[in-house]
Amino acid sequence: MKTVFQSQLENRQALESLLNNESKIVAEAPFLQDEMLEGVTARSGPATLEEAVDRLRKGQTDLSAPTYTEAIVMRTGYPSLLVKNGTFETPKLQNWKDILLHRRDVIDRAIANVGRVDLVNDPQNKWIGTGWRVNEDTFVTNRHVAAYFAQLRHEGWGFARGIKVYMDLREEHQSDEQLEMLVSSILHIEPTGLPDVAILRIDKTALRDTADPVSLQLGGRKPETIGVIGYPAKAIRDNPIDAMDRYFNDIYNVKRFAPGEIMDENHSSTEFTHNATTLGGNSGSMIIDVDTGGAIGLHYAGSALTQNYAVKIDAVADILTRHSVYFETGTGDEDEDTKSAGGSNGSGSVEDARLFEGRQGYQPDFLGDGSLRVPLPELNSVQVLKLARTHSGDTELKYTHYSAVINGERRLAFYAAANIDGNELRRPRRINSFKLDPRLAEDKQAGEDLYSRNDLDRGHLIRRLDPCWGTKAEADLANRDSMYFPNIAPQHKNLNQKIWLKLEEHVLDKTDDADARISVFVGCLFDDGDPVQKRSGIQVPMRFWKVLASIGRTRRGRSNRRVLQAQAFILSQEHLVKPKDLELVFGQGFEEYQVTIEELERLAGHDFGPLRDADTFAVTPEMRAEHKEKLESVTGLLTGSSDHIKPLGSLADVEAG
């Protein structure tokens, strides 16, 4: 197996540059001062750099005690460049100048996203490795780095008692400047035996003066030159101390940039090896393609004298994807303007649209086939023209166990539809992170600007826990999927939803265990008169609707037949948002109502298909004929007869069949 140095000596350009400038390099070698010569066999061995190169190439050098000419080759051939004021120092060899200096901008952007993992209240360690940003508030590092401060508890990963963790994006040589961000949570740590990866979240209130995160360079070409950005530490266990001091001029614990090449790009399915100069503190370092500045790996182990190992960026991306972490992507073959896949999260970071591959969304046959099949509601001809479409032309956004259909003009959902299995429900911990869906253009969905500095809450259409059923992995994925903005609508913070939020359980309680499944549809009732939230320019809907579909049983003789049943409800917040309210229509004090599905079709402009005839609050055929109207009526006030509308004072008022 080649050592790092033997691999470095295959770089003919570096060697030629080294040998062509022998006298100058020897004269300027900073570690050949008297105080740095201890441990170097100063006058023995090869007299010239060329001889030293030949000995290194043949493996004849004692790497723990090299001669001074051998040490020069080791130190200068593949330098670990100090970072000062956000950029790397100019390398001595011309070949590195030619490669690096014209790419300084993209390299510096990557440098700005790398931080030192600092610990507070740890009795043994001030810092323990390196981490780097994959999006606005998420960092990756190594599992073995996180092991210094992480504890696995019943509810998930937490911090060891009393320990605080910070990411410091500065810590440069001869500078006291810091840019610390508190790590607020440990999102995930890969189990032992899998790629050495951990995902950390920082406190967003700490964000300031930060560069845009770099892209993850997925599936692209093998880079000609790589760079490792991190914080080398004096690691005596794995590296001879004299050789380290000569290599790093006895300067440790500060940010450095080390150029190199990939040695074995397929060391394993998830790993590659490289020959850049690293030490123990480099654990968690970002490895970039110098040409593009894109991240191509996560350094996790190695020795300056033997091998260096990294997790492939595609393996890192797969882990991030499984945990719904958004990131910029690029293959390294595109222009800079075309690297990002998907849409922005509202602050410059982009999530990978491939995150949603394999999502099944709402299933029409969830309750059964034939007469029990419940398709998605159909929009009328006017609404179809307003549909938001994904970059691939789809109108249904599919998530785990639910789907959403978006009104592109209003930037909110026409409706979301979910399947709920009451026998397999789980309760994963809440994730306080809302994200735009990268499959939609940003101007077709409402983001954080709608909820900033006002009384509007981010209200879930499909409740967060409703899709969280099945295996733990499915439930965790559904939990994260529920936090995308297409499933969110603006609701006043004082809106009373005491009945609205319990309707699903109420219907499930009335079903047999064998039929403990329901499908739920929740949407906005859009009206041209809805008030505008000035900061975002988005009209805020005053009413929301919900339809529940479940299975009931009827007896005919000895048979017990499964039948479809459904209920529809409306929630109003108009009295909280603008002076005019619905008291004249509904009666004082009510915010929640049961309505006939036929009435809801008139109000919403949707066709609910088989649910209309499955309504447990149905009207007579005579009344239906009287109130029948064309579905092209997009919106309207609840002005139907009392036979179509029932105020709800409690769950006992619900007509559930």
UniProtKB/TrEMBL annotation:
Keyword presence, S-adenosyl-L-methionine: no
GO biological-process terms attached to the record: proteolysis
Domain ENPP1-3/EXOG-like endonuclease/phosphodiesterase: 399-615
Active-site residues per Swiss-Prot or TrEMBL entry: H460 (proton acceptor)
Binding residue positions for Mg(2+): N496
Region ranges (Disordered): 329-351
Superkingdom as given in the UniProt entry: Bacteria
Keyword Aminoacyl-tRNA synthetase: no
EC number(s) on file: 3.4.21.-
Molecular-function GO terms, alphabetical: endonuclease activity; metal ion binding; nucleic acid binding; serine-type peptidase activity
Pfam families, per the entry: Endonuclease_NS, Trypsin_2
DNA/RNA non-specific endonuclease/pyrophosphatase/phosphodiesterase domain sequence ranges: 398-615
Keywords: Endonuclease, Hydrolase, Metal-binding, Nuclease, Protease, Serine protease, Signal
Family: Belongs to the peptidase S1B family.
Name the UniProt record assigns to this protein: Serine protease
Protein's organism: Roseibium marinum
Lineage: Bacteria, Pseudomonadati, Pseudomonadota, Alphaproteobacteria, Hyphomicrobiales
